[in-house]
Amino acid sequence: MRRAVIVLGTTAAGLAALLSFKTHSLAAPVPSAPAPSTGMPQATASGTGPSSMGATVSPAARATPKSSATAPAAARTVTGTVANTQYGPMQVQVTLAGTKITKVTVLQRTDDGAESDQIDANAIPKLTSETLAAQSARIDAVSGASYTSSGYIQSLQSALDQAGN
């Protein structure tokens, strides 16, 4: 009976600890630009807007949107330095539109056999996803891929330094 009480108490404590665990946030979300206007009226949430129920739209509502005074920044690609890790080189290339990271391409990745390939196949998509979310090299390493993560972050930071971010 005493053993059952201890097991039940330990299980309850473990469950409480598990349920209270909170993960950290990656970074503050990047505010997104408003959707471009198409010049077409939009229906309201209640469905009573001009485009619902066959309502006619005035010519003024069909006017084309005015173009903005600033043109979008041209995309540019910057290659980071090769980061030599214990399991081989890591090198990334970053595509930027202005200061926004739009794409990360891994040019070289660690290559120390099948286990290294498996680790990279798991870690690189996570690192890339975090980079695009954080818009910087301040990202967390992937558990179990310390060397890959370190090399990726080092090469990424060098690319961003070259880009002036």
CATH topology term of the domain at 75-163: Sufe protein. Chain: A
Rg, alpha carbons: 25 Å
Strand content: 15-25%
Largest sheet: 4 strands, antiparallel
Terminal CA distance reads 64 Å
**Global mean pLDDT:** 75
Tell me the helix content.
Answer: 25-40%
Structural class: alpha+beta
**Total strand count, please?**
4
Describe the structure concisely for a colleague.
With 165 residues, this protein is of the alpha+beta class. The protein is 35% helix and 16% strand.
Question: Can you walk me through this structure?
Answer:
- With 165 residues, the chain is an alpha+beta fold.
- It has a domain at 75-163: Sufe protein. Chain: A (Alpha-Beta Complex), CATH 3.90.1010.20.
- It is 35% helix and 16% strand.
- It has 3 helices and 4 strands, in the order αββββαα.
- It has helices at 2-20, 114-134, 146-163, and strands spanning 75-79, 83-85, 88-97, 100-108.
- Strands 1, 2, 3 and 4 form a 4-stranded antiparallel beta sheet that branches.
- The N and C termini lie far apart (64 Å).
- Residues 24-69 have low confidence and may be disordered.
